[in-house]
Amino acid sequence: MIEIKRSVLPNGLIVLTHEMPWVHSVYLLIGVKYGSALDPIGLEGMAHFIEHTVFKGTTNRSYEQIDTAIEDRGGILNAYTGEQSTCYVVKVVDSDLSIAWDVLSDIVIHPTFPENEIEKEKGPIIEEIKSYEDDDDNIINLNLDSIMFPGASFSRKICGSEETVSRITREDLARIWKKFYQPNNMMVVAVGNIKHETNLDFANEKFGQLSSQEITDNEIVPAETDPNKKEIIVFKPKIRQAKIMIGFKTIPYGANQRDTLALDLLADILGGGMSSVLFTEIRGKRGLVYGVGASHAQNKFAGGFQISSQFAPKKKEQIIKLINEILTNIDDYITDERFNRAIANERAVYMFKLESNSFIAKAIFSDEDCNSLNQLSDFCKIVESITMDDLRRVAKEYLNPEKAFTSSIEPEK
After folding, report:
1. What sign does the CA torsion over 141, 142, 148, 154 have?
2. 0.85 exceeded by the pTM?
3. Which residues, at least 6 apart from 121, have a Cβ–Cβ distance to it below 8 Å?
4. What pLDDT does 353 receive?
5. Furthest-apart CA pair in the chain: how many Å?
6. Residues in CB range of 214: below 8 A, 6 or more apart
7. pLDDT for residue 167
8. Would you give the distance in Å from CA 102 to the centre of its chain?
9. How crowded is residue 328: how many other Cβ atoms within 10 Å of its Cβ?
10. Under 8 Å between Cβ of 342 and 272
11. pLDDT tens digit string along 280-316?
């Protein structure tokens, strides 16, 4: 059972704590409910750019002092941007909690966005964009999102493009930061050897005097309801193997935990390892592919079930046909043995993750952001209650081959 203590400051800041008195560290997360899905049109990559540049200096510290304040104590300071949020995180030994709170709150509350540092940082961000553009798996994923969720703001590139990043100015950064980095649009999560009362005291000290403003124009652009494109192919020179990803729309994170976990179990049965159905049928018995797997991914806006594989291009139609046959006859493959193995795997992975305060903090933030804070606590109870009939039901509902989308990279003809 995961006990999560929750408080809300008068200005709307949400403070959450999971106490782990047996560890000697604290993982602190400050999350802002602003990600790439809310980037202004023409300034895509803004949320990610802000995440980079708040580290470049505050009214209290230079960027060198920000780095050394944590690293000199053996701590870890980091940040990440997603479609729905931006998170700033620090992990320290529990005796350094005060400096961790001081530094992390400083960079989100008091950034100065130095002009020279902004222009300098465009270089590394553009190189990051190029690295993603050179990554075949990333290209396939982005292309699949673009046809599954056409027009949706949450299917944009998180980093933006070289063009949009190049045009972002200091005034743009300061304006968007001021709009979204409001206490009522943020939350603090602490997990480790820390009392909730202590976490709340720090939150009051750093954020308590800040006022909040109403945030408007913060609606995402939804996907078109009737996508007219079901396949996208990129032809690439000097490669000999094709890569494919077949996608199916599912549900957003937090919408239905039972269906989410049933789909996760189904991904394990279909493509979770060498004993999985896809690996056994396509590689083990027929030797048609190098690799094949399945996964289920979600954010607060949408969900997708993916089947991916690598193979000789001439085998593409044969492999797609075989995958479709497996999905059509999925009931035959959901056996007691496979079902029990998937349940055991899911439970074990979950228990291993509960030993990590970083995993717990991120999960608490995601659950609160999706208005489903009990998901972490209810996980084992729901997993144990899922039946094979649940898996057959979600397979029929979501994994219909006629509703599949396909993204691939193939050798140039």
Report:
1. positive
2. yes
3. 49, 52, 53, 56
4. 92
5. 66
6. none
7. 96
8. 26
9. 15
10. yes
11. 999 999 999 999 999 999 999 999 999 999 999 999 9
